[in-house]
User: Fold SEC-C domain-containing protein from Peptostreptococcus canis.
Amino acid sequence: MLFEKWRNLSENHVNEEAEVKFWEEFLRAETSIYNEILNEKTQIIAGKVCDLAKAYNTIPEYFMGFLDGINESIEMAQELEKIEEDTQINIKIDWEKLYFNMVNVEAHWLYGLKGWEDILPEDYRKRVIKEFNKTKIVVKEERIGRNDPCPCGSGKKYKKCCGK
Assistant:
């Protein structure tokens, strides 16, 4: 039910302005949660969802959104659909996987948080970003001209071979 509430909140907006307002508010709450977790180096998050939401100064639905976002970056994924406000959770964050996933979804406001400096070495963080950026480089395929040698290796001109 809580997961369903989160999905409804995140997907159903009366207009674009309401959607923008929702995401600004949620991302501010999410950033605040991550900021505290990173600064305190809290690798294990345990407790009732409603208590954790209160501890992180947010509402249970937003905390559920946080859990939805971090679920692929913890040692044992949670069955989000079964989590309710009074559900006791105990998750352990895999720092490297979390950082990698943040970079992969281009969440620069999260992977750029200062708290990462004391958790993962700078060279590791730079390498992850560099590897991700390589995946975005588009290599333009060279076009074969009619009079170029055929790429099949026959020795004939393209127009007389595979270009027919």
In short: Residues 16-40 form the longest helix (25 residues). DSSP finds seven helices and two strands in the chain. The mean pLDDT is 92. The radius of gyration is 24 Å.
